[in-house]
Specification:
about 130 residues, mainly alpha
């Protein structure tokens, strides 16, 4: 029987790691922390923020509303105040559909599909 090493899973993530996951500046994560009660990472003795996976999911929810859906901060706060779970459920559906779309139409991301279509139209007229 072969020995299989167990993969080590992190419990806490730094603000820099969280910001990198969402491709935003750490200052934006700190700002959202001050604006949204949903984000409350632990702080160690030095005052460094320690984000759990649950904290990261909460940041992801806010990122989805503000950056992907285009809500204002006030609009995102109202959505979360009304029904946080419904927002998270819709976000999961959105992410699932996005993965399906990427699987079925891999060239359509980033406008590559449009460029291919445009080139093929131009070649027909030559």
């Amino acid at each position: 029987m072969a020995y299989k090493e167990k993969e080590i899973e992190k419990i806490y993530y730094s603000i820099g790691e969280v910001a990198e996951q969402f491709n935003v500046a750490p200052s934006l994560i700190r700002f959202w922390e001050s604006e949204f009660e949903l984000i409350q990472p632990k702080k160690n003795r030095k005052g460094n923020r320690q984000f759990t996976k649950e904290d990261i999911e909460n940041v992801r929810t806010i990122y989805h509303l503000v950056k992907q859906k285009g809500f204002t901060l006030q609009g995102a706060k109202e959505m979360l105040r009304n029904d946080t779970q419904a927002v998270k459920d819709k976000m999961e559906i959105y992410d699932s559909l996005k993965k399906i779309r990427q699987f079925h139409f891999p060239l359509s991301e980033g406008g590559a599909h449009w460029r291919l279509r445009r080139v093929s139209k131009q070649s027909r007229f030559r």
